[in-house]
Amino acid sequence: xxxxxxxxxxxxxxxxxxxxxxxxxxxxxxxxxxxxxxxxxxxxxxxxxxxxxxxxxxxxxxxxxxxxxxxxxxxxxxxxxxxxxxxxxxxxxxxxxxxxxxxxxxxxxxxxxxxxxxxxxxxxxxxxxxxxxxxxxxxxxxxxxxxxxxxxxxxxxxxxxxxxxxxxxxxxxxxxxxxxxxxxxxxxxxxxxxxxxxxxxxxxxxxxxxxxxxxxxxxxxxxxxxxxxxxxxxxxxxxxxxxxxxxxxxxxxxxxxxxxxxxxxxxxxxxxxxxxxxxxxxxxxxxxxxxxxxxxxxxxxxxxxxxxxxxxxxxxxxxxxxxxxxxxxxxxx
Length: 333
Prior knowledge:
Layout: H1 15-23, E1 34-36, E2 49-53, E3 60-64, E4 70-72, H2 73-81, H3 85-101, E5 116-125, H4 130-136, H5 143-148, E6 151-163, E7 169-175, E8 179-183, E9 189-193, E10 202-204, E11 220-224, H6 227-234, E12 241-243, H7 254-263, E13 266-270, H8 275-288, H9 301-308, H10 310-326
């Protein structure tokens, strides 16, 4: 039996146990990833918070895509119990000591995590169908725009689970759900978009700045959240260029922004109007003095077009764009 008088350190406690215990997860975390509803966004209706094993830290961490928050088990306990770091560590040690001494389970002897990676290993492109037109035209995105940005419908794709420690292929699964492949100009698949998948809409395959191969050399660059938002903005007929990072949780670096500042007279940020998007826009504003556009009618510009119509979207977007252009005074020092 575990001796509560021994000098237990916080690093001795299995990271999976912390999430299991404080989140009351019935399935023991031993290396698998898991999505749960956000602890930080009460409006979250779909599981947007992911628990997974960090590749280099070799312990469980969380990433909340709804709020933009990230951390390990200690950070999670700090947040949900309103404790500082030291108090959270003491609480975890005390709770773990009591847990083991009560004989509820045996988590002692260290934590052996065998984590895995999933890789897209094959895909098949199909012909466009009416259901595709019905989906994309809601956002004012037609076939010419989809062709320009190399978006293609997929018949199916397969994913293989790889043991990250040994490189062994564990299993392969196929998916025939409605999905679209995002390709580079050379035809390389860099992302899969699954619009009707509530748990995970995107599968990132490669690092790629979306829209970077379709720049029209205008004087203003708009940084937005997704390729769909890029195409929606371009469909409004404005003389601006648009790019987006390879995921909604990724930010452009100072060096990248400085390079774009050499090519454009102005850089404007237009991300989602949810908590994570506003937080990211404020980061760009506070860190680099880049002006941002807040569009609260819907979650993003593509949804404004879908639910409010193109004209309302234009009336909302255009004056805020010009206000940001007039306020542009960046600082990359």
